[in-house]
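Justification of resources, computational component.

The compute hours requested in this renewal are based largely on the per-chain cost of generating structure records like the one below. Each record pairs the submitted sequence with a full structure-token output. That output is archived, and it is also reused by downstream analysis tasks.
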Amino acid sequence: MRAARSRTFRLARLAPIAASLLLVTAAPAGALEFPELEWEGSGTQKVTAKTIDLVIVRPIASVRVLVGSILFVPAALFSAPMGREGFEGALDVLITAPAEYAFDREVGAL
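The structure output for this chain reads:
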């Protein structure tokens, strides 16, 4: 019984160390910036990308705008006590960014 208790105690001491190492190593990956990619495919691939964008991606993005505007009402009520910053944050995440993705980008730019 004593051996099981000491093993559990050792694992309990190692868990916070392992979690902190995981967080430290994962942080730099979020700081990477990727350059703008230009299309280097054939004409058929370009037409296919534009068709998929118009037929599949844009309607789904439009639904995302609709769902975001429905969720914005309670989010605005909950973020109102934080002031204008909370309200603008909810507006940006739930309506502005999805609307720009759905309606303001070029056709075929995924």
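Residues 40 and 46 are 9 Å apart (CA to CA). Residues 21-31 have pLDDT under 50 and may be disordered.
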